[in-house]
Amino acid sequence: MHYCADTWFLLILFGKDSHAREILEGIKTGKDWLFIPYITYAETMKKLFQQGYSENDIKSFFELLENTKKVRFISAEKSISQEAAKISLSFDIPLIDAFIAATAKVTNCNILLAKDSDFDILKKRNYIKTQSW
Amino acid sequence: MQGHEFIIDNVKLGRKGQITIPKKIRDEDNLKKDDEFTVTHTPSGSIILERSTTKKPEDRLFEFINSLPYFDAEKAWKEVEQERRKEHR
């Protein structure tokens, strides 16, 4: 299974959510991969700063994730940016959501770990499958 | 996340498909013979080379998360969602 993480997943992982942890355990022990768009990295980092976490804690969290085998941070390269522009326009969703969905699509992820209702329309039109709890 | 300077260089592909990582990068990142890498080929043609790690940072990640004070992730997420909507308007 290839997962793509929205900011929601990173936040609940930071918040010790047991299901998020199970997914990461699956990545550690099985054949699963986790792709993290850099845009969700930025958004999560901003929110954690706003919540008063220290730069050291935030950096440690991301460094440990970054060093995890089968976890990859994905830059918004050309093909992803082009796809994001199309999605944002076609489905009238925020560009940030479009970048996340485009990353999931271009990297052939089976599941987008996301709770944002803006992805509902993408789900309805079979663009991407999402999972939340 | 490592605090080194940005380095960009041209390299040539050898007869057997090998490339040489510039010495400056090898020295700075302490790369040694038999170190393993993951090669990613993106749809737009970029080839990304990332050093594989043999450590188990997942375990350290869980330990680290457990050491943090309580964090209301769902509340934080709702705020992020609202910010996205605001930027889209």
- Distance from N terminus to C terminus of chain A (CA atoms, Å) equals 18 Å
Largest interface chains and counts: A-B, 45 and 34 residues
Class from secondary-structure proportions of chain A: alpha/beta
Overall SS class of chain B: alpha+beta
What topology does this entry show?
The complex is a heterodimer of chains A (about 130) and B (about 90).
Chain A: E1 2-5, H1 7-14, H2 18-29, E2 33-37, H3 38-50, H4 55-66, E3 71-74, H5 78-91, H6 95-106, E4 111-113, H7 120-124, E5 130-131
Parallel strand pairs in A: 1-2, 1-4, 2-3, 4-5
Helix pairs in contact in A: 1-3, 5-6
Chain B: H1 23-28, E1 37-41, E2 47-51, H2 57-67, H3 73-88
Antiparallel strand pairs in B: 1-2
Quick overview:
The complex is a heterodimer of chains A (133) and B (89). By secondary structure, chain A is α/β, with parallel strands linked by helices. Helix content of chain A is 57%, strand content 14%.
Describe the structure.
- The complex is a heterodimer of chains A (133) and B (89).
- In chain A, 57% of the residues lie in helices and 14% in strands.
- Chain A has 133 residues and is an alpha/beta fold.
- Chain A has a single domain (2-131), classed as 5'-nuclease (Rossmann fold, 3-Layer(aba) Sandwich).
- A five-stranded parallel β-sheet of chain A has the order 3-2-1-4-5.
- In chain A, helix 5 (78-91) crosses helix 6 (95-106).
- The radius of gyration of chain A is 14 Å and the shape is globular.
- The two termini of chain A are 18 Å apart.
- The model of chain A has no long low-confidence stretch (mean pLDDT 93).
- Chain B is 37% helix and 11% strand.
- The radius of gyration of chain B is 20 Å and the shape is extended.
- The model of chain B has no long low-confidence stretch (mean pLDDT 84).
- The longest helix of chain B is centred in the C-terminal third of the chain and has 16 residues, at 73-88.
- At the A-B interface, helix 1, helix 2, helix 3, helix 4 and helix 6 of A face helix 2 and helix 3 of B.
